C-alpha cells in the first residue's frame, strides 16, 4: 500500500457528486494500492455493469475485453465478493499454486502479465451496487492482509458517500408478504418472475446453480408453495420484474 488513507478518505467524504467521486477514485486509488491496473464498476438494478472506469497499463482495454469474454462468468474472486460482500484477493480464494494453474489465470490474467488481483464490494442498504478492482504485474508483490484491511476501509467510505448520492438505490419489493424473504431471495424471486432458469439466475447474481436451487427450497417453505409459478403468483404485485 502506498499513501496514508486519511486524506484520501476525507476527499471521498467531500466529493460533490457521483461523477466527482469516480474521478477521485480513478486518480488516487492506483497509487494508494500500488496497482498497475485499477477500476471502479457500478451496477444497475439487474446487477449488471452500468458505469465502468478502468485505468493503468498499456493493454488495459484489451485485458478488460478478454476478461469480459472468458473470465467474468467463471471468476471465483469476483464470486466471493458478490456472495460475501467482503474484499478478497487470489491468495484467499485459491490454495497454494491453484491460482496460477487455473484456466482463469492462464487464459486471462497471465496473458497480460497481471499476476495478482484484489476486489472489494460497494454496498447500499445491504445490496451490492458495485466493486473496486486492482491488479499487479508478476514483478510486483502479491496483495496481503494489510491491503485487504485498507480496501475494506476504502469500500466502506465509498459506500457511505454513494449512499448520499443514491439514498434509495434500486428500491425493490414493497412491504408485503415478500418481507419474509431475504434481500438475496427477493432478487431470485424477481428473476424467476422474468422466466430465468436456475443457471441464468446464478450467472446474473454470481452464485452457483446449486445455491439458487437451495435458496428456492427455502423460499418455497417460507411462502408455503411448491412450484415457481405458485411462488410468483403468491408474491404478486410485490415483484418488480
TrEMBL record:
Cross-referenced SUPFAM superfamilies: C-terminal effector domain of the bipartite response regulators (SSF46894), GAF domain-like (SSF55781)
Keywords from the UniProt entry: DNA-binding, Transcription, Transcription regulation
Organism: Trichocoleus desertorum GB2-A4
HTH luxR-type domain sequence ranges: 174-239
Pfam families: GerE
Cytoplasm listed as a keyword: no
Xref: InterPro entries: GAF, GAF-like_dom_sf, Sig_transdc_resp-reg_C-effctor, Tscrpt_reg_LuxR_C, WH-like_DNA-bd_sf
Protein name: LuxR C-terminal-related transcriptional regulator
Amino acid at each position: 500500500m502506498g499513501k496514508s488513507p486519511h486524506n484520501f478518505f476525507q476527499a471521498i467524504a467531500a466529493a460533490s457528486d457521483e461523477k466527482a467521486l469516480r474521478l477521485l477514485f480513478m486518480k488516487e486509488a492506483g497509487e494508494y494500492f500500488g496497482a498497475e491496473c485499477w477500476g471502479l464498476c457500478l451496477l444497475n438494478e439487474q446487477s449488471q455493469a452500468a458505469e465502468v472506469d478502468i485505468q493503468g497499463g498499456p493493454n488495459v482495454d484489451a485485458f478488460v475485453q478478454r476478461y469480459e469474454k472468458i473470465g467474468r462468468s467463471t471468476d471465483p474472486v469476483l464470486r466471493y465478493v458478490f456472495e460475501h460482500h467482503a474484499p478478497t484477493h487470489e491468495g484467499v480464494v485459491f490454495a497454494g499454486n491453484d491460482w496460477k494453474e487455473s484456466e482463469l489465470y492462464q487464459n486471462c490474467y497471465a496473458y497480460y502479465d497481471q499476476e495478482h488481483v484484489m476486489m472489494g464490494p460497494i454496498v447500499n442498504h445491504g445490496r451490492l451496487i458495485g466493486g473496486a478492482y486492482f491488479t499487479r504485474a508478476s514483478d510486483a508483490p502479491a496483495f496481503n492482509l494489510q491491503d485487504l484491511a485498507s480496501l475494506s476501509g476504502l469500500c466502506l467510505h465509498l459506500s457511505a458517500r454513494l449512499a448520499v448520492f443514491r439514498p434509495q438505490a434500486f428500491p425493490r419489493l414493497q412491504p408485503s408478504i415478500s418481507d419474509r424473504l431475504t434481500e438475496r431471495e427477493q432478487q431470485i424471486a424477481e428473476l424467476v418472475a422474468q422466466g430465468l432458469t436456475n443457471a441464468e439466475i446464478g450467472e446474473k447474481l454470481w452464485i452457483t446453480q446449486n445455491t439458487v436451487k437451495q435458496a428456492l427450497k427455502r423460499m418455497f417453505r417460507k411462502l408455503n408453495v411448491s412450484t415457481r409459478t405458485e411462488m410468483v403468483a403468491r408474491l404478486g404485485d410485490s415483484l418488480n420484474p
